[in-house]
C-alpha cells in the first residue's frame, strides 16, 4: 500500500504532479471514477491556491480508515498570508485575485469532509477527505 | 512547457488536448488559438477534451474565454468529448461553462458547426 506522502507545491509543474499522485492513490483506495474525478479536481484547486495565494506550500496525501471504510485524505499547508475572513473566502465567486472564486467553495462540495484552519500572517491548512462507498 | 498542436481542416481548427497541462501551457494555448484563428481565417474551432481527465476552474475558464475570444474573431467554438465524470464534477464545482457550445464527439461537433453556419446564412 502507498505510504503517506508529502509533495511540494512550488511551481505550476508541481500542481500537475499533485493531480497525478492523487489520482493514483484515489484508484488504490477504491473510489469510483466520478469520486476520483472529484478528488483530483479539488486537489488541483487547493494546490493552485497554495501556489497562487500563498507563494507555495505542500500537500500530505494519505489513506485513512474508519472501521471498514477506506478514504483518501489530503492536507494542504502553507506559510502564506492566511485567510482573514474564512466565511467570505468560502463564498462562491469570491476572489481576491483574478480567479473565478470557485476553488474553496467547490472543493468543499466535491469532498466528504473539509476543514480549514488559517491564522492571518501564519498560513493556512486545509484538510479534505473522501470516503470510498 | 508543453504546446498543444492545432490542426486545420477546411474552415475548422481542431485542437485535441492529450495531456495533463500546466496552467502556463493552458494560457499559451489560449493565445495560440486566437492567433491561429486570425492567421487562418478559420470560422470554427473544435476543442476535443476526450482525453482530459479533469476540468478545474482554471481550464474551465480557459474554455469560456476561448469561446468568447473566438466569437469576437468571427469563429464559433464547440467543446467535444467531455467525459461524464468531468461533467458531473464541473456542475458540482459550480462551473456551468455558460456560452460554451458542447457536443458529444468530433462528428457531432462538426455537424453542430454546420448547423450554426446554416442558420447564420438564412
Ligand atoms: N492558501 C491560501 N492562502 C491565502 N489565501 C487563500 C488561500 N486559498 C484561498 N485563499 C483566499 O480565498 C479566496 C477564494 O479562493 P478560491 O475559492 O480558490 O478562489 P480563487 O482562487 O479563484 O480566487 C482567494 O481569492 C484568496 O483570497
Ligand atoms: Mg482558487
Q: What does this protein look like?
A:
- The complex is a heterodimer of chains A (133) and B (122).
- Chain A has helices at residues 12-29, 33-54, 86-89, 103-110, and strands at residues 5-9, 57-66, 69-78, 113-119, 123-131.
- Chain A is globular.
- Chain A has one domain (5-131): Histidine kinase-like ATPase, C-terminal domain (Heat Shock Protein 90, 2-Layer Sandwich), CATH 3.30.565.
- A five-stranded antiparallel sheet of chain A has the order 1-2-3-5-4, with helices on one face.
- With 133 residues, chain A is of the alpha+beta class.
- Chain B has 122 residues and is an alpha/beta fold.
- Chain B has one domain (6-121): Transcription Regulator spoIIAA, CATH 3.30.750.
- Chain B is built from four helices and five strands.
- Chain B has helices at 23-40, 57-72, 84-93, 106-121; strands at 6-9, 12-16, 44-48, 76-80, 101-103.
- In chain B, helix 1 (23-40) packs parallel to helix 2.
- Chain B is globular.
- The mean pLDDT of chain B is 95.
- Chain A binds chain B through residues 12-13, 15-16, 19-20, 23, 33-34, 36-38, 40-41, 44-45, 48, 92, 99-100, 102-103, 105-106, 109-110, and chain B through 20-24, 53-58, 60-61, 83-86, 88-89, 92-95.
- Adenosine-5'-diphosphate binds next to helix 2 and helix 4 of chain A.
Class per helix and strand makeup of chain A:
alpha+beta
Arrangement of strands in the largest sheet of chain B: 1-2-3-4-5
> From the 3D coordinates, which CATH architecture of chain B would you assign?
2-Layer Sandwich
Shape of chain B: globular
The CATH topology name of chain A reads Heat Shock Protein 90
Distance between the termini of chain A: 19 Å
Total helical elements of chain A: 4
Judging from the principal axes of the Cα atoms, what is the shape of chain A?
globular
